[in-house]
Design brief:
nine-stranded antiparallel sheet, 3 helices, 11% helix, disordered C terminus
Length: 190
């Protein structure tokens, strides 16, 4: 399968977030290829974005966000759920796209509506933090890609603490897809 090139990720985070919708995540492990179609994402725009982990600056935890585009940033929330992000833009920016939900395509039997659930179903854990998404083990492909007809933009979920950044429409999902997670109030159709 053709992997998305590094140049795809080395662009404006909002553009990358919107264009990830409809692409497939592939995780190959133990002779099984798990594939899911990306149907929901959130953009985190760097250090000035108060909802972004990078707003606290460069730390051991956030180091992958400040690295090369096209790498994974995987972190733990609530002490039990992994969240998979794709690093975007140039080194030092600290921007990434959170993959919030996928539609199961192959070898996925568990729920995938939410970042923790999709990581569990795809068997993506913190071992993939700082993982190159141009590898053969975990990557995003443009095989079978079809651009979504309607993308909805809403505020991100669970970032109420982020002041004015809490209401910015930086969550994008494919309109009408049954695998989008909770909080689907439409505020802006683009």
């Amino acid at each position: 399968m053709q992997k998305l090139p590094r140049e795809f990720y080395n662009r404006d985070t909002i553009v990358v977030a919107r264009e990830l919708l409809g692409h497939y995540i592939v995780h190959r492990s133990q002779c099984i290829e798990r594939i899911g179609k990306i149907v929901e994402v959130e953009a985190y725009l760097g250090q000035h974005d108060l909802a972004s982990h990078s707003s606290k600056g460069l730390t051991k935890r956030t180091a992958p966000m400040f690295g090369l585009p096209g790498y994974a940033y995987v972190y733990l929330i609530y002490g039990m759920y992994n969240c998979f992000n794709v690093v975007t833009e140039s080194v030092g920016i600290g921007a990434a796209v959170l993959i919030r939900a996928i539609e199961p395509i192959a070898n996925i039997t568990e729920r995938t509506q939410g970042p923790g659930l999709l990581c569990k179903a795809m068997m993506i854990n913190r071992c993939f933090n700082a993982h190159d998404l141009l590898s053969d083990e975990l990557f995003i492909t443009d095989a079978d890609y079809e651009a979504p007809e309607h993308i909805i933009a809403t505020p991100r979920i669970g970032v109420h603490y982020a002041k004015e950044w809490a209401i910015k429409p930086l969550r994008f999902y494919i309109h009408g897809n049954g695998f989008v997670s909770r909080g689907c109030n439409v505020t802006n159709n683009k």
